[in-house]
Specification:
single chain; 382 residues; alpha/beta; Rossmann fold; Dihydrodipicolinate Reductase, domain 2; seven-stranded parallel beta sheet; seven-stranded mixed beta sheet; 13 helices; 18 strands; globular
Length: 382
């Protein structure tokens, strides 16, 4: 690819980490674009970073902003992610996306192929890294029998009542608590309400957390050939029950209710209030924990792979852990595309990259450069 700048659309906590990493670690010129001057002001004054205050939702704006890009990173909020990604593809630009929109990205596959665009979607930590690991294991095994991912971003200090902080928009987190959870049992897709199936999980370095059903499998429902597949979200014990109370009371409802001040959607009020309650402050520290377990047959033996990630707020760079693990996966993959290590035209969930020879090793090497460690255990089962 050419030496034109990388354009990053969206500069929140994760987007800003992406911009800094691309400019400082990958040593590439970056144009950071956000509707908020305050978000852009958090970026360092650096000759490889250019900022622009723009509203990417304006008609024709995306095509204008990415016209000179070598590649685009889409880090906008989920509710506008699908449409923004579509506009990037129409502009003929390779793209790595972390907007985690609810629509099916494969609906844009034909468009991406027609435009010769390589688009990697869901490229964070989960979805993202866990998918890359799934693709890597699937290539090694003759048969994958099961896949389980448990993941969560948590505040290092627990503060009642939520014991939670968000690096993403609260509306995106709430959507995770309301969207029905899909998983696979005996080869069949099972649908359960989110926040069900609560169970305790003990993980090294963290202690006892609770895991519950959320709709996190996304593309792995269709791309990973295994009869048992599930993803669960991790939180401190008690959080899921509180969120179920909010949801069942109607505080997450998108249906307008009549008030003295007019019709109001409860979700709009709740998300606005939770924005302040969940917002990361300068004093907050966080951690990201993820365990992926996969079992199957490799070289005629039953094998279990266990991948453990535990990452903490980086005091040296002042970057939150969830921004690091999500954003750095994105930046590493962006560089893989720029270097020609992955070039498949169309919509690519991260497992396609994991199945490509050498890519997972380069992802791990990229993590190591950023002081992120993934512990891997391979066990032979009886």
């Amino acid at each position: 690819m050419n030496n034109n700048p990388i354009v990053v659309l969206g500069c929140g906590l994760v987007g800003s980490a992406i911009v800094k990493d691309l400019a400082l670690i990958e040593e590439r010129h970056v144009v950071a674009i956000d509707i908020s001057q305050q978000n852009l002001a958090s970026l360092p004054d650096h000759d490889r970073i250019t900022t622009r205050v723009e509203d990417v939702s304006e008609p024709g704006k995306v095509a204008e902003l990415v016209a000179d890009a070598s590649i685009v990173v889409c880090a906008v909020p989920g509710f506008m992610g699908f449409e923004t990604l579509k506009r990037i593809i129409e502009a003929g630009k390779a793209v790595v996306d972390i907007s985690f929109f609810p629509e099916d990205a494969m609906d844009l596959d034909d468009l991406a192929r027609e435009n010769g665009v390589t688009a990697v979607v869901d490229c964070g930590v989960a979805p993202g890294l866990c998918n890359i690991q799934a693709g890597w294991v699937q290539e090694k095994m003759e048969k994958v029998e099961s896949y389980l991912c448990m993941v969560g971003g948590l505040p290092s200090i627990r503060i009642q009542p939520f014991e939670y902080r968000a690096v993403f928009s609260p509306i995106d987190v709430i959507e995770e608590y309301t969207r029905p959870a899909r998983y696979v049992e005996h080869g069949q897709v099972v649908v359960k309400p989110a926040l069900t199936g609560i169970e305790p999980v003990d993980l090294p370095g963290v202690g006892t957390l609770e895991a519950f059903n959320t709709d996190g499998l996304r593309s792995l429902i269709y791309t990973l050939d295994a009869p048992f597949k599930k993803e669960k979200t991790l939180r401190y014990p008690g959080h899921a029950a509180l969120m179920r109370t909010f949801r069942d009371t109607g505080l997450f409802s998108e249906e307008a209710v009549r008030t003295k001040s007019g019709d109001v959607r409860p979700i709009d009020v709740t998300s606005r209030l939770l924005f302040d309650a969940w917002k990361m402050t300068e004093e907050d520290r966080d951690l990201t924990v993820m365990r992926v377990e996969m079992e199957g047959v490799e070289d005629g033996e039953r094998i279990r792979y266990t991948f453990d990630l535990l990452d903490h707020y980086d005091e040296k760079t002042d970057i939150h852990s969830m921004a690091r693990t999500t954003g750095y996966t994105c930046t590493i993959v962006t560089s893989l595309l720029l270097n020609g290590d992955f070039e498949r035209a169309g919509i690519n969930p991260p497992e396609f990259l994991g199945a490509t020879l050498g890519c997972y090793d380069k992802v791990l090497a990229g993590y190591a450069r950023r002081d992120i460690t993934v512990e891997t255990v391979r066990e032979v089962l009886a």
